[in-house]
Write a structure and sequence with these properties.
By secondary structure, the protein is mostly helical. It has two helices and no strands.
Length: 81
Protein backbone atom coordinates (compact mmCIF):
# COMPACT_ATOMS: atom_id res chain seq x y z
CA UNK A 1 0.00 0.00 0.00
CA UNK A 2 2.85 2.42 0.80
CA UNK A 3 4.46 1.67 -2.55
CA UNK A 4 1.24 2.64 -4.28
CA UNK A 5 1.41 6.08 -2.66
CA UNK A 6 4.85 6.61 -4.21
CA UNK A 7 3.50 5.75 -7.66
CA UNK A 8 0.54 8.15 -7.55
CA UNK A 9 2.58 11.36 -8.13
CA UNK A 10 4.58 9.65 -10.86
CA UNK A 11 1.37 8.65 -12.64
CA UNK A 12 -0.52 11.84 -11.82
CA UNK A 13 1.92 14.16 -13.58
CA UNK A 14 1.74 12.58 -17.07
CA UNK A 15 -2.00 12.06 -16.77
CA UNK A 16 -2.51 15.67 -15.71
CA UNK A 17 -0.35 16.97 -18.55
CA UNK A 18 -2.25 14.83 -21.03
CA UNK A 19 -5.55 16.21 -19.75
CA UNK A 20 -4.26 19.79 -20.05
CA UNK A 21 -3.03 19.26 -23.59
CA UNK A 22 -6.30 17.66 -24.58
CA UNK A 23 -8.34 20.52 -23.08
CA UNK A 24 -6.15 23.16 -24.76
CA UNK A 25 -6.53 21.45 -28.12
CA UNK A 26 -10.31 21.36 -27.71
CA UNK A 27 -10.51 25.02 -26.72
CA UNK A 28 -8.28 25.97 -29.67
CA UNK A 29 -10.66 24.40 -32.17
CA UNK A 30 -13.75 26.08 -30.74
CA UNK A 31 -12.00 29.43 -30.19
CA UNK A 32 -11.22 30.10 -33.84
CA UNK A 33 -12.89 33.12 -35.32
CA UNK A 34 -12.65 35.32 -38.36
CA UNK A 35 -9.52 35.01 -40.42
CA UNK A 36 -7.42 33.01 -37.99
CA UNK A 37 -5.08 30.61 -39.73
CA UNK A 38 -3.73 27.45 -38.17
CA UNK A 39 0.07 27.33 -37.84
CA UNK A 40 1.61 25.35 -40.66
CA UNK A 41 -1.17 26.13 -43.15
CA UNK A 42 -1.09 28.60 -46.00
CA UNK A 43 -3.36 31.61 -45.65
CA UNK A 44 -5.39 32.93 -48.58
CA UNK A 45 -3.59 35.69 -50.54
CA UNK A 46 -5.89 38.42 -49.22
CA UNK A 47 -5.09 37.49 -45.62
CA UNK A 48 -1.37 37.31 -46.40
CA UNK A 49 -1.48 40.75 -48.01
CA UNK A 50 -3.21 42.22 -44.96
CA UNK A 51 -0.67 40.65 -42.60
CA UNK A 52 2.25 41.86 -44.71
CA UNK A 53 0.84 45.40 -44.83
CA UNK A 54 0.34 45.41 -41.04
CA UNK A 55 3.88 44.12 -40.46
CA UNK A 56 5.37 46.71 -42.80
CA UNK A 57 3.50 49.48 -41.01
CA UNK A 58 4.78 48.21 -37.67
CA UNK A 59 8.37 48.07 -38.96
CA UNK A 60 8.05 51.64 -40.26
CA UNK A 61 6.80 52.80 -36.85
CA UNK A 62 9.67 51.06 -35.06
CA UNK A 63 12.25 52.54 -37.44
CA UNK A 64 10.81 56.03 -36.94
CA UNK A 65 10.92 55.58 -33.16
CA UNK A 66 14.56 54.48 -33.33
CA UNK A 67 15.46 57.39 -35.58
CA UNK A 68 13.77 59.84 -33.20
CA UNK A 69 15.57 58.30 -30.22
CA UNK A 70 18.99 58.66 -31.91
CA UNK A 71 18.50 62.30 -32.91
CA UNK A 72 19.23 64.72 -30.06
CA UNK A 73 16.44 67.05 -29.04
CA UNK A 74 17.45 70.44 -30.44
CA UNK A 75 14.12 72.18 -30.06
CA UNK A 76 14.97 73.68 -26.66
CA UNK A 77 18.52 74.65 -27.59
CA UNK A 78 17.74 76.82 -30.61
CA UNK A 79 17.12 79.89 -28.52
CA UNK A 80 20.54 79.59 -26.84
CA UNK A 81 22.58 80.04 -30.02
Amino acid sequence: MHQLLYLLPALGCPLGMGAMIWSMMRSGKSGQSGQAVQPGTIAPPAVQDQEIAALRAEVDQLRAAQRDAREPDRSGRDWLS
